[in-house]
Amino acid sequence: MGDGKYKHSLLSYCATQGVAALCLISVAYASMLRLAPIMRYGVLINEFDPWFNFRCSEYIWNHGILQYFTWVDSKTWVPDGREIYKTAYPMLFIVSNMIHCVLNTFVRVDHYTVCCLTPPIIFVGCLFLVRQVAAEFFSSSSEKHLGVWISIAIFSMSGSVFEKTMAGAYDYEGLSLFMSLLILYMYILQIKNKIKSVWGRGIIGVCIGVAQGIFNLSWGGSIFMDLLLYAHSFVSFSNWRILACSGLVTMGVDWAAPFLWVVKPVNIGKLLSFCLLESAHVLLHVSRKAQIKNFYAIAGSAIFVLLLVGLGIFKTTKSGALLLEKIKQKDKIYNVLYKKRAHPLVSSIVEHRHATKEQIIDMCGPLMVVAPILMVWGTAQLGYKKKNSLLLVMLGGFALSTLMFLHMERFAFLVAPFLAIFSADAFCKVMFAQPIHTKLRGMRLLFVHRQAKILVGVFMLFHVLSCFGTMHTKYKQVIVVMDGHVNGEPVIADDFRESAMYMKYNLRPDSVILSWWDYGYQITGMSGLSTVIDNNTNNYARISEVASLLVSSEEKVSREHAFLKKVVPDLDTDLYIYTVCGYTSQYALSDLNKLQWIAKIAKEADGSVDPAAYYFKANGAVHYSLHGLSDVDMANEKIKDAPLYISPAMRDSLLFKLCFYQHTNSVTLHNLKLVHESSNGIVRLYKIAE
């Protein structure tokens, strides 16, 4: 708020320390909850994708980093295998190995445990960086202490941050959050002119470039910081030389990494941004006569540079068509804005869809509802803040991360630090501000009234309770193990690990497992067996072929099937189908509940597949899955005594029969044998007969 109109009431020492103590307790409790999955389920990597990350990290630990960069994994995408070093971001694996080296100096610990504990360790680093960024944001000494603590507390209880940094959540997002905060903090030091010398600014530019390069090696969403910093540079007309320096370093990292590429739209945009800003600077700081003269020189130089860039692109990629194809394969902006809509496989991934109202509350808490108000609050302060460049970059980060989150749910964790800091700023000013002039009128006076303070206080309490409720739910419902109820009694459903141990110790080591792509990483990571497809969704064609198999007639599935002969031609190699069921367990993520998406993906390989042909019908209503329907009696084909109609395509499909075999006499198998079913009926394993 404006210093000429408002002052901050100084809380008593006890009150200030009391609020800070509550924040400290909240942070400590949120940190302890991150270890709760270990206490509840044991040391556990608790999602599907992190199992691939663990395998890669363990490979580096056992074989060394140099061997990793030549590793072709023969256990995935059989029979072709996968060039891991060309298709995976390695920085998380390297960080885990560094942590293991440090821990090994004090205590012997296995690498699985290290990978399980890596996310909470990274979270501690994130807390420190949020504290540093918040300390720079709160300029007033009267509000800095409390504002920083409130920011850290709100950040620590964010549902989106919690699920990415709790024990076992060994995925890229936790490290990506740390890198984005580190880059933001270094950039803030630069824009606040804390580094005075030219050499110092050059060094900070190199450091930002190194950090951005590491970010590029960590996660595909690293473009977030590129967009934020260059947008701020354009709006504030500053720091473009620093960013050019960092951009050159980042391009060097892109060039050195075997899975990244230099000639990509974001790097071309960096070069063009520097040229535009430098040209504008030259034109604005000379006489009018010189401006005209320089304009022609700069325009000619720009055309020449563009020609060189175009020639370089043509020579490098042989043709514009190849460049376009490379953009389609690798560019993240293209993937987010276009491919998501263009291919059902990408759209089928929940975290790639638009955030729903429920997800907004679940991921960010009730404070996210007032995010537009917080942005307006911050924008209003631009007019009377002495140094508004910092506020500008924070507002830009808040707006950009919010837009990315609303567009795609997986970006929710990027919003957390900005939401926390702006919420803390508004909370401190509303709760502890009072007008200097008693006759002050207008909207701002509303925010210092007692009623407003009570409203804000109650809303903040509601946010805290909501976030802690979300965290308690998340640590009990990790993907691999979850809480459940049988006959009203609580149980722990550990079917995935149970089935993995069965496969590991009862199947031949050279056996091949065919499943839907969701479970490929987990199967190979837990059991060590080979898989036909996995969570690396770049090979659309192979996944579409598996989808086509799952929706096809069960009678056609045998070792003579053309697709199965192609992937496992050796009849001496055992081939199994791994399916996730939800009939007896009411498991919401069963394969049958995904059948509509599977059919849409199958249509990519077989144009004759009609997704609308796979449905159930009861009481005049059409259902594409049985999820959410109670009292389903498949043996008698009824729902609450009403007849259940099963479409011919659904009834004949392989996936339907895999899920309901032995639950109804109408399902018989021809070339498949059920060899394993988990305790709660979630996982089934079938062997394909020769």
Describe the protein in words:
The chain is an alpha+beta fold and 690 residues long. The chain has two domains: 12-264 and 331-454, no CATH class; 492-688, Rossmann fold, CATH 3.40.50. The chain is 60% helix and 8% strand. The chain is built from 31 helices and 17 strands. Strands 8-7-9-17-16 form a five-stranded mixed beta sheet, sandwiched between helices. The N and C termini lie far apart (76 Å). The model is unreliable at 1-8 and 435-443 (pLDDT under 50). The chain crosses the membrane at residues 12-32, 88-107, 114-134, 174-191, 203-230, 242-262, 295-314, 360-378, 390-408, 414-433, 454-472. Residues 510-559 form the STT3/PglB/AglB core domain. Residues 40-453 form the Oligosaccharyl transferase STT3 N-terminal domain. It holds the Pfam family STT3.
Q: Which keywords apply here?
A:
five-stranded mixed β-sheet; disordered N terminus; three-stranded antiparallel β-sheet; 2 domains; 690 residues; alpha+beta; 8% strand; single chain; globular; Rossmann fold
Q: Into which percent range does the helicity of residues fall? A: 55-70%
Total strands: 17
Largest sheet: 5 strands, mixed
Low-confidence parts lasting 5 or more residues at pLDDT below 50?
Answer: 1-8, 435-443
* Rough outline: globular
Question: Can you tell me the number of structural domains?
Answer: 2
